[in-house]
Amino acid sequence: MYMLLKQVESSLDQLKALRDEGKRMAIDALKEFGNPNTDPVARVDQFLEHIAIRPESMDPAGVVYKLEHILDVRNERFLDEVRLIAPKADDVQLHNLENLLEAALALNVIYKVIRHYYLLGKKTLSYYIILQLQMQLPLVIREAKAYAGALTAFFHGQPIGDGVGPLVAAKLMRGKEIKRIAKDIVAAETEIEGRKAYVVKAEGPGARVGKPGDAVKRIIEEHEGKIAAVIFVDAALKLEGEKLGEIADGVGVAMGGPGVEKFKVEGEATKYGVPVYAVIVKEDIGDAVSPMHKDLYVAADNAIERIKSIIRERTKEGDTIIVVGVGNTVGIGQ
Amino acid sequence: MTDRKISASLLYMLMIVSALLLSIVTLYGAYNAYTENRIDEANYLAMTGIIGISMAVLMLNQIRRAPKLTLKPYHVVTMESCQNCDFKNVRDFRKGDYVFQNVGKCPKCGGDLLIVSIYREEREKREEGIF
Question: SS in 3 state form for B7-74?
């Protein structure tokens, strides 16, 4: 028991160091980019304790839109908070700072949850609480290190591994007229393999994911459901033993996050019977949130080839299709 | 709080060191018993001594502090490429760089110079083990 406690204590020290580093970096960034009139420390401390309460799901009808509303309010609140702390930050910096603070918040939550169970186990002298904690700690530390990697990326505005979807979309829409079609989402009309293609991504280079579900829904409705295929490109967590940047394809909506956007696309695709395909680029959590690895640029080109092959095999010339690059577009323009 | 922590660790270390010393004494006893031809007793003491030493070493190994976690900054580079010719330039990332940013004219042909990739140069060396 003593040995287990020592091990957990030692890991807790590491998590605390990461949490403190996140906080320090957030404060430095706010001072550097925002030139705030007041010291941001107290505001950052308050921000790191922010909570979002999920809607009640005893009666699940409509719960997705309730969740969307809560998330919208949360995002607006975060942006307002950053605007207040860093009034001179421009739009790109604003979104980068918001994401940086979110990563710092995640590190704070991880540290506090682990500390809670450590103290609970110590207080109750429960061998099983401590044992469970000790068994899970290597994975928790791994995740915390990944978030720590994200701090530097958001601090400098560098592309992260999760941005491989927007990178693919940006390559496909390069040189075309770009329009904003939903919140933080841009689209361009282009031609791929003789098909009319709408390419959709979050608006870069600020750290945004936007609402791709709304964008896809809008395009499908504008075409009264006459869409031959919707293809999603996203980064997906690889299993141990799989190679970074490996491409896989299949069917379904490849989209992470809380599920609101995925729900909208699935509803719309089902309503009009639009086939939905997915192309995923495999990477681990560390690669997904830290500055983009060189291999992922090669993977982006491979993903484009896979998309073209799906288009050739599953649609006819003259059809209209949608390609969506899902992910955080930090450091990636269009 | 810290004093209590230190004294608890010290007590635990003392217990392990005592167990280690006792095990060594037991092994010495085993040696004596062997030289006096008390084979059964020697075997018994040797086994006890070896188990004691192994357990003490294992416990010492398990309570050692985890290596300090350090955040090494990634070396991130920006690759610029000309849209007209094969000119390419790789340089250190500068704040404000982003992929598909137009960064001026190509020094070779005067075409548009774009940032085509921003990536970390090599994989961060993973730290082995947490404990």
Answer: HHHHHHHHHHHHHHHHHHHHHHHHHHHHHCCCHHHHHHHHHHHHHHHHHHHHHHHHCCCCCCCCCCCC
pLDDT of A210 higher than 60: yes
The answer to which of A83-92, A219-228, A258-267, A273-282 has the lowest mean pLDDT is: A83-92
Q: Does the beta carbon of A167 lie under 8 angstroms from any beta carbon of chain B? A: yes
CA angle B31/B37/B43 to nearest 5° reads: 55
Domain residue limits, chain A? 2-156, 161-325
pLDDT digits (tens, 9 = 90+) for A133-178: 999 999 999 889 888 888 889 988 999 999 999 999 999 999 899 9
**Cross-chain residue pair B99–A170, CB shorter than 8 Å:** yes
Look at domain A161-325 and name its CATH class: alpha beta
Q: Which residues of B touch A296 (CB under 8 A)?
A: 119
The helix-helix angle for B39-62 and B2-35 (nearest 10°) equals 160
B63 and chain A in contact, CB less than 8 A: yes
Contacting A residues, span 281-310, partner chain B, CB-CB under 8 Å: 286, 290-294, 296-297
> Over 80: is that where the pLDDT of B73 sits?
no
pLDDT at B68: 62
Mean pLDDT for A216-244 is: 94
Question: Among residues B68, B66, B62, B129, which one has the least CA distance to residue A138?
Answer: B129
Determine the distance in angstroms separating the CA of B34 from the nearest CA of chain A, rounded to an integer. 36
